[in-house]
Structure formats: C-alpha cells, structure tokens
Amino acid sequence: MNFLKQFFEFTRPGNNNISGQCKLCGKLYADKLKSTGNFHKHLKRKHTKQYEESKFSDSIPPKTDTNDYSENLTSNVIKINQVMLEELIVKCNLPP
User: Which of 20, 27, 28, 91 makes the best surface tag, with the fewest CB within 10 Å?
Assistant: First the structure.
C-alpha cells in the first residue's frame, strides 16, 4: 500500500472499502480495504512507464564500475599468487 501512496490520494469512505484518486490523471478508483488490485491495474494500464520505473527501481541493483572490480580482482590474484609462492619456497626449502 505504501507504494501506491505516491500515485493515489486515499480516503476511507467506510464499510471495508477504500477509494483513491490518481495523482497523475485525477480518476477515482475504489477497492476493498485490504485489496489493491484495482489501483495496480489502473497504473499498469494507464501509466505503464511511471509504474514500472517506480515499481522496479528498488529491485535493480546499482551498476558497479567494472574497472574497480577488475582492479580489485587483479590485486587479489597477485596477493594469492604471492602467498602461494611463499608457501612453496618455505615448504620446499627453496632459496627466496
């Protein structure tokens, strides 16, 4: 319901009903108190772009900079290789 509050101004006329006026186009819709289907349908049909942008903006992780990731990965690989080399030198009694 919190998601819908950015698109509708809700009032509760009584009897387990709720009505809401769309902030984008002004149309009035009603539904049962615990149901939001009519409000979602309206947004999907009439305001698809705004609905999808708002609905899915939280679920899409922010794009990470791949250069930072590559640099960190390369740095970690170098560290791992160094540790492995040191272990081999110690275990095999090789000169450094």
Answer: 91
In what helix (H) or strand (E) does residue 50 lie, and over which residues does it extend? helix 48-57
Enclosing domain of residue 37: 4-57
- How high is the pLDDT of residue 66? 60
pTM for this entry: 0.56
- Number of domains composing the chain: 2
Return d(Cα 84, Cα 81) in angstroms, integer: 5
| Angle 58-62-67 from CA coordinates, rounded to 5° | 175
HSE (side-chain half, CA atoms, 13 Å) at 52: 6
Candidates 69, 92, 96, 72; CA nearest to 82 is: 96
Cα→Cα distances 32→2, 20, 23, 76, 81, Å: 16, 11, 20, 56, 63
